[in-house]
Design brief:
Layout (H helix, E strand, L loop, with lengths): L1 H4 L2 H4 L15 H16 L5 H13 L37 H15 L12 H34 L6 H15 L3 H11 L5 H21 L4 H30 L2
The structure holds flavin-adenine dinucleotide (FAD).
Flavin-adenine dinucleotide (FAD) binds next to helix 5.
Length: 255
């Protein structure tokens, strides 16, 4: 499919694949063995149609690395200073939310600091900017927190180690939940893209995924003895969902 869609000339221009490496190596080791990691560990998991191109690129091209960070927003009320973009607020790039948050922040600020609201020649303007910043923090909160929480929560699920059964169960449940279609996929897409800036909706869908996972796990029990294990497994799932979600919610909404 990849070969058919992209002729060789275009493939040369379109080789870009982001690979997440989770604390596998110390920085020095990473530099020397990253190519080996890509070829030996990552490549076998890729679809056959792109594997050869990936291995060739991993061996021959200069690889770029970028640390992934989580920086919850804080109210910066230092007079004369406004932080925006990654300097102000960062989340895992898995969901591609960085520019959505940054550009929405620009939209809010443009409105709040417009010349109809603040005359910058007025000696009192720094005080007014300061008070508008308070409004800015509350206006951006819903949309930015939804995107940030979702990015970090999804990353926790997709990067889960296979030995971590509750996270693995949640990840599987999330995939099956999206497959249900309707609002089970359209709402999460809206939350991710910033078009549905509702933390309540995010909460509902996140725990709906956990409840759906519990239902699937309980339904799969094969005997009474097995049922006890599946009850334990499903309770572990809802507990893990809470442990993942609540600290992220707190980091975004703490006063
Ligand atoms: C792997 C990865 C994939 C991503 N994918 C997406 C995506 O698909 N969609 C999306 O919306 N977002 C994505 N993001 C997030 C997005 O890239 C950032 O949110 C966005 O670039 C933030 O813009 P910024 O201007 O705040 O910071 P940056 O783009 O980091 O710009 C900061 C600039 O300041 C320069 N700089 C730093 N220190 C100094 C200094 N002391 N003096 C002078 N200059 C300095 C840096 O060199 C840099 O050019 C991704 C991020 C990563 C890491």
């Amino acid at each position: 499919m990849f070969q058919e869609l992209f002729p060789a000339s275009v493939r040369g221009l379109s080789r870009f694949l982001s690979v997440s490496v989770l604390n596998l190596y110390h920085r020095d080791q990473l530099r020397t063995s990253f190519k080996e990691h890509l070829v030996n560990i990552v490549a076998p998991d890729l679809p056959e149609s792109i594997r050869d191109n990936f291995i060739e690129a991993a061996k021959t091209e200069k690889l770029q690395s970028m640390p992934n960070s989580f920086l919850p927003p804080t109210s910066n009320l230092t007079e004369g200073l406004i932080l925006l973009g990654d300097a102000f607020n960062m989340r895992h790039p898995l969901t591609g939310g960085g520019m959505t948050v940054a550009l929405w922040d620009v939209v809010h600020l443009r409105e709040l600091l417009s010349s109809s609201r603040i005359d910058l020649r007025d000696p009192e303007s720094p005080k007014k900017v300061h008070s508008q910043l308070n409004r800015f923090f509350s206006q951006r909160k819903s949309r930015a927190s939804v995107i940030n929480i979702l990015a970090m929560a999804l990353y926790t699920l997709v990067s889960a180690n296979d030995s971590d059964q509750p996270l693995k169960d949640l990840r599987e449940s999330m995939i099956q939940y999206f497959h249900l279609g309707g609002i089970c996929s359209s709402h999460p897409s809206g939350l991710l893209s910033g078009t549905l800036p509702s933390p309540v909706l995010l909460f509902c869908h996140f725990f709906a995924v956990a409840l759906y996972g519990m239902y699937r796990v309980l339904l799969s029990s094969t005997s009474i003895t097995n049922l006890f294990y599946q009850i334990y497994r499903s309770l572990a799932m809802i507990w893990t969902a809470t442990v993942v979600f609540v600290p992220l919610l707190w980091s975004e909404w703490k006063p």
